[in-house]
């Protein structure tokens, strides 16, 4: 298979026209210049292929290599400026976070990305911006402008990974960029540490997730969001994972309603697997109390396809108990329910929990969350176990025996696993 090797210095990409003209010099000087001879040989060795073939070849290169190739010829430069796959991060932009201050690094990052986006001619298929290595917040006016350039008809993937910063303030994703047909072709939308607040009038929301044929999206992963209750149906969604993290802000607002997540199950008629992970430093919700029989229900909302449910970070919040009981009562095909009062690296899988770090010590946990974990197990025994049908296998993940020696006064529970 033929192979094409292209060599170009990174400095050539930023060289001015004036300096290039000065370097050319007279014809006699060019003959004596070894670099000029090398460039001449390079030009003569490049095969004479149609422009669209060169464009396809360069579109397969990683972003840094495509940028270097753009320094070689006008054809390559044109292909570079229409590169369909933009992955913009500290690694691809060759930035070293250890050699300069964060504020300077943020300015350099913004300047380089802005230069790339301003000169891009369009036709982006994937846009991946990773800015989570910096604590300083990116100027959102720049990011909004970059999204306007990138999100056009034909784009298939948008991925933003943003920093949390010193305060729990999230970047507000500009939903209007998805309107006017721009979001119709998106097959993958990943927003990390972003606020996503679509309105019911956003006409492309249905097509954003389901596309025109509604045969593409089978899995959604959502992280750190407020639950939208919209008239949207995910007709082909089979796997749904939702991660909720309070971002070290001291717990979720008491107004956050875990029970509202049942609307997702209602909107996914063929959903088979549902995973919920909750990571918080405090529980501020209304806790379920002894003899509390006033629990909400959603009669008539039957989920016929759900087979496997896993809830990690299960707590004694009343709305979470309501969600769990709703699933047990309405998921008619449920085969397995896994509950874990913690959410860590040991939460996935069925192996015994081990939260010991590299130094042989357990990962730090607050006394409050240790108490809430034990309380969560107690609630499972009181309110959940009796509602488990005989056809459902209930698995309750054990807590770490080393860091969970503290127990509430008068605490009692039995670890039980039921088998159908």
TrEMBL record:
SMART domains for the chain: FBOX
Domain of life: Eukaryota
Stretches for region Disordered: 16-44
Entries under InterPro entries matching the protein: At1g61320/At1g61330-like, F-box-like_dom_sf, F-box_dom, LRR_At1g61320_AtMIF1
Pfam families from the UniProt entry: F-box, LRR_At1g61320_AtMIF1
PANTHER family according to UniProt: OS02G0105600 PROTEIN, OS02G0729251 PROTEIN
Designated name of the protein: Uncharacterized protein
Lineage: Eukaryota, Viridiplantae, Streptophyta, Embryophyta, Tracheophyta
């Amino acid at each position: 298979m033929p192979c094409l090797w292209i060599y170009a210095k990174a400095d050539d990409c930023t060289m001015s026209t004036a300096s290039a003209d000065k370097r050319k010099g007279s014809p006699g000087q060019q003959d004596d210049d070894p670099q000029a001879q090398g460039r001449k040989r390079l030009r003569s060795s490049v095969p004479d292929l149609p422009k669209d073939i060169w464009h396809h070849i360069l579109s397969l290169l990683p972003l840094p290599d495509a940028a270097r190739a753009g320094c070689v010829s006008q054809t390559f430069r044109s292909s570079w400026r229409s590169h369909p796959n933009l992955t913009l991060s500290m690694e691809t932009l060759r930035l070293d976070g250890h050699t300069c201050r964060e504020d300077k690094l943020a300015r350099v990052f913004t300047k380089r990305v802005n230069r790339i986006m301003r000169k891009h001619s369009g036709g982006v298929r994937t846009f991946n911006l990773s800015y989570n290595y910096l604590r300083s917040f990116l100027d959102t006016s720049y990011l909004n402008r970059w999204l306007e350039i990138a999100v056009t008809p034909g784009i298939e993937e948008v991925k933003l990974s943003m920093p949390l910063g010193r305060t729990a303030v999230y970047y507000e994703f500009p939903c209007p960029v998805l309107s006017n047909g721009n979001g119709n072709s998106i097959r993958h939308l990943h927003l990390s540490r972003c606020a996503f607040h679509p309105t019911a009038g956003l006409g492309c929301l249905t097509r954003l997730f389901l596309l025109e044929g509604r045969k593409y999206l089978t899995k959604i992963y959502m992280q750190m969001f407020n639950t939208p209750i919209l008239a949207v149906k995910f007709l082909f969604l089979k796997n749904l994972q939702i991660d909720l993290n309070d971002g070290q802000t001291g717990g979720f607002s008491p107004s956050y309603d875990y029970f509202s997540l049942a609307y997702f199950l209602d909107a996914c008629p063929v959903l088979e697997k549902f995973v919920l992970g909750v990571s918080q430093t405090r529980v501020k919700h209304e806790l379920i109390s002894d003899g509390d029989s006033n629990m909400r229900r959603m009669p008539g909302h039957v989920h016929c396809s759900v087979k496997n449910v896993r809830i990690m970070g299960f707590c004694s919040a009343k709305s979470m108990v309501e969600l769990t009981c709703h699933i047990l009562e309405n998921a008619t095909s449920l085969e397995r329910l896994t509950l874990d009062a913690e959410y860590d690296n040991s939460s996935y899988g069925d192996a015994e929990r081990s939260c010991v770090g590299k130094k042989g010590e357990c990962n730090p946990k607050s006394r409050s969350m240790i108490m809430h974990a034990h309380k969560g197990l107690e609630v499972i025994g009181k309110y959940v176990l009796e509602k488990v049908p005989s056809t459902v296998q209930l698995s309750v993940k054990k807590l770490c025996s080393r860091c969970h020696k503290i127990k509430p006064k008068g605490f009692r529970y039995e670890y039980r696993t039921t088998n159908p």
